[in-house]
Amino acid sequence: MQGFRAPWWLPGGHAQTIWPAKLARHAPEPVAHPPRWRRERWTTPDDDFIDVDHLAEGAAADAPLLVLFHGLEGSSRSHYVQAFAQWARLAKWQLAVPHFRGCSGELNRGPRAYHSGDFEEVGWILGRLRVQHGAPLYAVGVSLGGNALLRWAEEAGDSAAITVRAVAAICSPVDLAASGRAIGRGFNRQVYTRMFLATMRPKALAKLAQHPGLFSREKMLAARDLYDFDNVFTAPLHGFRDTDDYWSRASAKPHLARIRIPALVLNARNDPFVPAASLPRPGAVGRHVTLWQPAHGGHVGFPGGRFPGHVHPLPAGVTDWLQQHA
Predict the structure, then answer these.
(1) Considering 26, 288, 299, 310, which one is annotated as catalytic?
(2) Residue range 90-149, pLDDT digits in tens
(3) CATH class of 13-175+252-325
């Protein structure tokens, strides 16, 4: 993946982001059926719930377990999860996809939701899976989920090795302020910001109906970008003073040198959401962290093959690195 190059027929970061998400296949060859999932509902320590989908494809109980944390408004239906599921099916690995609160198709009960620095939730999920499974455990986080996973590894330090062998973050906004500014401008604002708010705002308003007085309905309706949304909803509900405080304290970039397990941080330099200038540099991350920053790939795209293409290079490249460095 370090030297990844997109197909000639799919140039530019926007095309390499949108096409894989909407039109590319999830595997090099057509598959007989989409992944089959077995869902578990877990009660959280604060008496809420999350749903965890397990790939039901007959992997052996002692096969390695890959835990995949999705991105903003993602789920087990997301194109990158489908691609990892097809990889796991072929590799005979177990795969678990924990859903952040409110992302599994049913609104969670409590007032809180999820956020980019939700390392305590990530740690609780990984700890429970570690107890349930005796197999080697690896963790991958995509976009928001990757930043949260890195924050967990940073906070856990040496103890992270008790739980997982290696982690990888894919296209994660490790500098949340830089990514927040990028997605709030120009084409990004008109396309991606609108896409995210189209699901985030209704869920927030449903949360307000659950818990009257939780935040200002008028301010939520007036929010036009993620900065405004986080100021009204994400920051105050999760213990941050405001958006600036949230983006600063939740960003993984300043603390990467604290990681003590093998960690891959993969970011395409043409990612529309994550400016290349904001990416970490090798001298600032510590010896346990590997940086892959190819010129191409878009945001969670990395398409390959002939038209119409597929997204198998992403799970194949990331899992190969995890196995080599565990």
Answers:
(1) 299
(2) 999 999 999 999 999 999 999 999 999 999 999 999 999 999 998 999 999 999 999 999
(3) alpha beta
Catalytic residue among 175, 179, 271, 296: 271
What lies within 8 Å, CB to CB, of 29 at 6+ separation is: none
pTM: 0.97
State yes or no: is 271 an active-site residue: yes
pLDDT mean over 291-300: 97
Is residue 143 part of the annotated active site? The answer reads yes
The residue extents of the domains of the chain are: 13-175+252-325, 180-250
- Active site (annotated) includes residue 299: yes
Catalytic residue among 78, 104, 143, 172: 143
Task: Give pLDDT tens digits for 38-51.
Answer: 999 999 999 999 99
Specify the pLDDT at position 309.
87
pLDDT at 24: 80
